[in-house]
Amino acid sequence: MAEEIKAHITGVVFQVTAKVGDKVAAGDPVIVLESMKMEIPVEAPRAGAVKEIRVREGQTVQEGETVVVLE
Amino acid sequence: MFRTVLVANRGEIARRIVRGCRALGLRTVAVYSEADRDAPHVKDADHAVLLGPAPARESYLSVERILAAARESGAEAVHPGYGFLSESWRFAEACARAAAGVPIVPGSPEPVADAASAERVAGGLGYPVILKAAAGGGGIGMAKVASADELAGAFATATRRAQSAFGSGQVYVERYLEAPRHVEVQVFGDTKGTVVHLHERECSIQRRHQKLVEESPAPNLDARIRRGLTEAAVAGARAIGYVNAGTLEFLVDAQGGFYFLEMNTRLQVEHPVTEEITGLDLVAAQLRVAAGEPLPFTQETIEPRGAAVEVRVYAEDPARNFLPSPGTITRLALPGGEGIRLESGVVEGSVVSVHYDALLFKLIARGADRAQAIERLARALDTCVVEGVKTTLPLLRTITAHADFRRGRVHTQMVEQGAFHG
Predict the structure, then answer these.
(1) Which chain A residue is nearest to residue B355, measuring alpha carbons?
(2) Above 60 in pLDDT, residue B138?
């Protein structure tokens, strides 16, 4: 079942570290947010393949917004 | 005039500098990489020291190796020529620090080649030691080693981690400081060459190596250590001809040893603590010095009085490992009163943006002594209200009420170790 990974804080997308099709393990960062001069990774909650990436670098995301979807 | 000069370069310019030294009757030390073993500049000099492999990064650009070569050959000065480190402020600062004799954490001057040499260095330093990735940062590849029988295993792990994280498996060995304090010294220099200190600040209570609470004077600090710190700071600033406000940061261990960390060449966040106990305006002094005027104070006229404590209120959630908490400040009530100073960048309705630092305001309390300053601070914190964003206020209240803080028993690992939980 697909799982949406949501941003746990508000910030600007500093880096998209995953690509569509990548296999990620639980705890792997999928994107890195920058907020208040801190870089904060958003991690995969479980293992899976990356189905969709909803954000691009430089974009502002709100807390709770979906950033990546896993298969 | 010095007697021995190290020439930190190669090729024609190294030979030119050797000739210049000869003209003044000075002894010369050449440095070289493995690729330059037979180079003419090596033969020209009176003495030569091998730096490392051919890549410049591991030889002619290695600040540590060049300084180690200067030390072991007894050179009192370094001529960098052009290129390589000739315009590196880091190198200039490292040379000045070496010349001023400011103590740094004891350790291997360069990466250790294998577990056996790590063991040799560690044996000389005494356990516990810490292994640190040469290319590292952020604590990755760092490992504390308690005894000799743990070293080989820890060395293998640290090397592997450093290799995968930084692409270089090189590690250093350093003495491990158990729960050290962070004490820093405010210095001030002017363009006439005068350098004074404005006493110390205790800044041990930190998270992510960033300060939360600062105070002056540092509590429970032996007068001998205090004097050692301020003397080392002034000597260091003088050695580099430092102009304007600066701060030399030190780690102080439980045995009273102190080690230079780094110099902050700017106005510090915590400068109000120093202003409160000295009655001086550091920003005004910065402007005067920048305009070429002499310092508006002398060492003799800087008289610390009473005690001052500052806390930093950040838009961060201490309950969620200090995650940033941007948003809009919907309600803000800030304290005032006897001995309370407030430095705030926000008002009610301010938007705390994701684009900048999370500091909202600083609260500084002054008292005739430390106990009074803390009492005033605790009362002021109780009346603070910030709504709309999460802040470090709850943690700061816990800290100011904490028995260890009240007794002045602080160290840099308290927040991470959970000393202020619950």
Answers:
(1) A36
(2) no
- The rounded average pLDDT for each run of 10 residues, N- to C-terminus, in chain A (71 residues) is 91 92 92 88 93 95 94 91
Amino acid identity, position B366: R
ipTM confidence score: 0.77
Average pLDDT over residues B159-165: 80
Q: In this predicted structure, what is the pLDDT of residue B92?
A: 86
Q: Cα(B182)–Cα(B204) distance, rounded to whole angstroms?
A: 5
Number of domains in chain B: 3
Q: Between chains, do B316 and A36 touch, taking CB under 8 Å as contact?
A: yes
Q: What is the CATH number of domain A3-70?
A: 2.40.50.100
Q: Which residues of A touch chain B, with CB atoms under 8 Å apart?
A: 8-12, 34-38, 40, 60
Instruction: Note whether B324 contacts A38, CB cutoff 8 Å.
Output: yes
Q: Is residue B333 part of a domain?
A: yes
Contacts across the A-B interface (CB distance below 8 Å): 35
Question: Strand order in A60-61's β-sheet?
Answer: A38-43, A29-35, A11-16, A60-61
Containing domain of residue B15, as a range?
A: 4-100
List active site positions of B.
266
Return left, alpha or beta for A12; rule: phi > 0 is left, psi -120 to 50 is alpha, else beta.
Answer: beta
